[in-house]
Design a protein that fits this description.
The structure holds 2 protein chains of 2 kinds. Chain A is α+β, with helices and mostly antiparallel strands. Chain A contains 9 helices and 22 strands. The chains are: A alpha+beta, B alpha+beta.
Chain lengths: 374, 367
Amino acid sequence: MSDVILSLSHVDKFFGNPSVGVHAVQDFSMDVKRGEIIALLGSSGCGKTSTLRMIAGFESVSRGAIELNGRAIHTLPPAQRGVAMAFEGYALYPPLTVRDNIGFALRSAGTRDVAEQVTAVAKMLNIQDILDRYPSSISSGQQQRVSLARALIRKADLHLLDEPMGQLEPQLRTLLRGRIKHFMKAQGLSTILVTHDQTEAIALADRIAVMEGGILQQYDTAENIKNYPTNLFTGTFIGEPPMNVFNAAMRAHENRLQFHLNTETMLDYPANVFSDEVQSILRNVEQVIIGVRPYIVTRTQGQGLPVRVETNQWIGDQSLIITRLAEQTLVMIEHKQSTLRAGETITIELDPDHIHIFDAQNGKALVHGREHTS
Amino acid sequence: MPCLRLIDVDKSYKGEKILDRFNLQVNDGETLVIFGPSGGGKTVLLRMISGMIEPDAGRIMRDDDDITDLEPQYRNMGMAFQNFALFPHMTAFENIASPLRAHKKTNQEITTAVLSIAALLKIDHVLSHLPRALSNGQKQRTALARALVNAPSLLLLDDPLRNVDAKLRFEMRLELPRLLAQQGTTVIYVTQDYKEAMALADRIAVVRDGHIIQLANPQEIYHTPADVEVARLFGDPPINLFEIVPRKDNKTTLIDLAGHTIELKKAKAGLDRPCLLGLRPEVLSLAKKDTPRAIPITIEAKTPLNEKTVILAVTEQGQELLISRPSQEPDQVNERAYLTFEPEQALLFDQASGENLQNNLHQESSS
């Protein structure tokens, strides 16, 4: 049995005539392994929903091929593809109770312990108390969970979930994410979920496909996207608080590499903290964008870059310290209640191991920390 | 010095009480956040302060003047709403200028004021655009600029970040305090987002069913919530709650939690009746090895959340709990671990009323 359950090869989607219409998805290739949870992540209009709809069979594939479990499915009608879906809009059957909505597909398939399975999944999603109600009498957040429950208990080669938790309040989401992830892993479900919320993607997915402008920007684990973003877009899209970015002019001296943030402030590193390969890249660029994740900014005593604290926002278990560095905003994070006050000046340091350097012209990543990108 | 006072204000709609003998004092220069679930009366409250709706009873005082019957245009308040409410046929510039035009300022004065506030809000490059050509974020900033351009002494903001995307909401949450501080304005800010409330507020009024449940600074709200509902509303992941019955043993109070007996040093209240023990996810520690007071658990799932890792675990009795820790975690799912916490960091609530029993204790000991 192949390790790969789903593969998309060079898939395009045009709306309208290819020469003048919208090229919604461009040359999209991606493999999903059996039992893997994948997030398609991007803002609205990035092509993620079109991609999901092509896999489900609600949109035709303009070019390319989709294989699921060894079968080419891109020309099959939706019902023959072997996918289970929870879509925005929910599409619950109004005359059936919540219980019957969730169990409908299982019952049609002649499954034996439908009642037990329905109860278990309902309990997992905190909808066990509304099983005998009708869709019209429950809230949109509850409808969304019913739709999700119905998809999750189906046996299918692939589960497709479109913004599965968009309607839920944040605290409930945090709890349900844990339970759903546990369930999907225990059942070995292969899943693609579409979301615009990077927190959701990072929390649930084994790998994340970041899309923008119809193009797959990066397909990797959350960890790798965070540490090795391929470009400025993925770098700033993933992570909350977002990555701090600074425009800088590169000045390379024999023994030192300097990034001038403005006329007064620079990041100054001994050249030999970087590998030879990184040095040769940096010696050949002029304008760069420096990316610094909030959690790698460390406070120092005395030595270091002076920054002025502008606000200190404590949100219960974290403090976000907003500072000014070279007339730009630098956010740092402390996992406790910080006593810093607005107006204080502190010194910080940015570990060269963890800074990202992007080409100012095209946003492509040049260097991650001391290592070269490739 | 109080800038605004609401005294015994009542408001009903169709026989339903929205605000019930509502009292509130807003201090000069502070940012007061009105926080609570929808339907709690927050928006009605704001509209009443602005003069758009009238109270059924009670008085609204501005400094020493009674403004209860004053028309909205004479109240000198700036307002911005979650749906932006821009004039669709006017450019961003004209939208921002509209309150100044109403006050018959000269063109020169208007241009200076609009350009300066637009620069502060980083929308100076889109001033010639009509609202439909603006992104949601730019619309939002335009609405804020309009609210601020007149340098009002009181600013009313009704969930202004509700309809902007997560990234922009985050950026605005960082920027707003500086902006408001520069203006020196007193602000009443309505939101349903607890992080926004904590980040922006000098004080938070938690409003539910037409009443203020708690009015305090963010620190007190988080550490000494008035009741279990307030505790649940602040914090993500949410507070863990366990049903317990504290009992007396010699000089200490004992509870049974997940098959273990734990000593609660502080708690003298709530003895022999059903209580809820509240443990915030960040006060829980996990160890690999068993210790006398540790509770064995199994880790079911890990889900990263904003530079934290949220761990879903179950006790041997099948009780779920959430644990949060800074940064990434190497240990494995389905692993056993041992849970400990400092009893001083636990909160204790009465199960029937939800009331925080330790708050009572503090009050008793201080009086």
